[in-house]
TrEMBL record:
SMART domains found in the cross-reference section: Glyco_18
Gene Ontology BP, a term: carbohydrate metabolic process
InterPro entries according to UniProt: Chitinase_II/V-like_cat (IPR011583), GH (IPR017853), Glyco_hydro18_cat (IPR001223), Glyco_hydro_18_chit_AS (IPR001579), Glycosyl_Hydrlase18_Chitinase (IPR050542)
Domain GH18: 38-370
Protein name stated in the entry: chitinase
EC number: 3.2.1.14
Length: 370
């Protein structure tokens, strides 16, 4: 799901001392979590079929608290469409009526069901206000048609990138960023306090912003570097969950100024710690991306080895959770706090987890005791 991690001029490790909590901005004001307890978020293959097999929404087990319907995509003018997978591609797919009934049944159990927009093969760019309006109108139609609880933004590829000169995440000027923020604010205003907003960016669009932001002063960097940061920042008080994809990623520098690699518990530990501590963007201590609340942050991981690069076995998932929620079993990485109220886990995907005999789900329930 990740883009190719190429910077035309990859600078050496950021100079200076390791970041300490003293330079971190405070988190946003507290607000009640959408659901009590910890969250298990899973993508459900709803518009396509693959080797993982089709899972009717009514069959998603009780442990999953948030179900992301994957995916809705753009027609190119900001309009978003959601087309359910057809029997020729998805053996066992239910009828529209049964799909709707399955959504209602999951919601009756306290689950949240949202439409996820984008994905690995999707590209959504809102280049002007008219396209933002089309986005809001069409996303609202999907939410209303199926009675959904909100939206998940999974913009990848070239969907978000920063223009030259756009160097302050708190005051963005790039049209595709400004218009996305406007569209999300309009959706939030339309549906009110109960509207669920989640985002699942790749590390390239978030944590890479610690080193690089946009094209840089000489235009020598990939303009997508850190491009999600202004969207997350603008919507931070309305954001229910941020579930960064700790997979399909290149090496990313953490707050210890060391590069961290996928496949170890240290990778999600370091990447998640950045979100919970905050960090100066592109090394500029005058532009500190503020910490998110722990209940807004879930660790995104592949459900199995077939689901994506960066898979971690149950022991390493448990190690990451121990470190972040208990301050134990951290290995060589020193976190900037302990967060018992960390939201939980996200995975790609429910389908791949069923394919793997529910190993990811069982790791979550075994750890959090749900």
């Amino acid at each position: 799901m990740a883009p190719t991690l190429v910077l035309r001029a990859l600078a050496a490790a950021l100079a200076g001392a390791v970041i300490t909590p003293a330079v971190m901005a405070p988190a946003a004001a507290a607000q009640p979590a959408i659901q009590a307890g910890h969250q298990l978020v899973g993508y459900l293959h709803a518009s396509f079929g693959n080797g993982a097999g089709y899972v009717p929404i009514a069959d998603v087990p009780q442990a999953w608290t948030v179900i992301d319907l994957a995916f809705a995509d753009s027609t190119g003018d900001g309009t978003v469409v959601f087309t359910r997978c057809q029997p020729a591609e998805c053996a066992g797919v239910e009828s529209d009526a049964d799909f709707q009934a399955g959504i209602r049944a999951q919601q009756a159990k306290g689950k949240k069901v949202v439409i996820s927009i984008g994905g690995a093969n999707g590209e959504v760019q809102l280049t002007n206000a008219a396209q933002a309006t089309n986005f809001v109108t069409s996303v609202s139609a999907i939410i209303d048609r199926w009675g959904l609880d909100g939206v998940d933004i999974d913009f990848e590829n070239q969907s978000l990138k920063l223009d030259a000169g756009d160097s302050d995440f708190a005051h963005p000027t790039t049209p595709v960023v400004v218009n996305l923020i406007s569209a999300l604010q309009q959706l939030k205003d339309r549906y009110g306090a109960g509207f669920m907003l989640t985002m699942a960016p790749e590390t390239f669009f978030v944590q890479l912003g610690y080193q690089f932001y946009g094209p840089g002063p000489q235009g020598a960097q990939d303009p997508r570097a850190g491009a999600y940061l202004p969207v997350i920042y603008a919507m931070r008080d309305s954001l229910t969950l941020l579930t960064v994809q700790n997979y399909n990623s290149g090496p990313i520098m953490g707050l210890d100024n060391q590069y961290h690699q996928m496949g170890t518990a240290e990778f999600p530990i370091a990447m998640t710690d950045m979100l919970l501590a905050g960090f100066p963007v592109a090394g500029n201590t005058a532009h500190v991306f503020p910490a998110l609340r722990p209940d807004q942050v879930a660790i995104g991981l592949p459900a199995g080895q077939n689901a994506g690069n960066g898979w971690l076995g149950p022991d390493r998932v448990t190690q990451a959770l121990d470190c972040l929620t208990k301050g134990a079993n951290c290995g060589s990485y020193a976190t900037h706090g302990t967060h018992a109220d960390l939201a939980g886990l996200m995975t790609w995907s429910v389908n791949w987890d069923r394919f793997g005999s529910w190993q990811f789900q069982n790791t979550f329930t075994g750890y959090f005791g749900q």
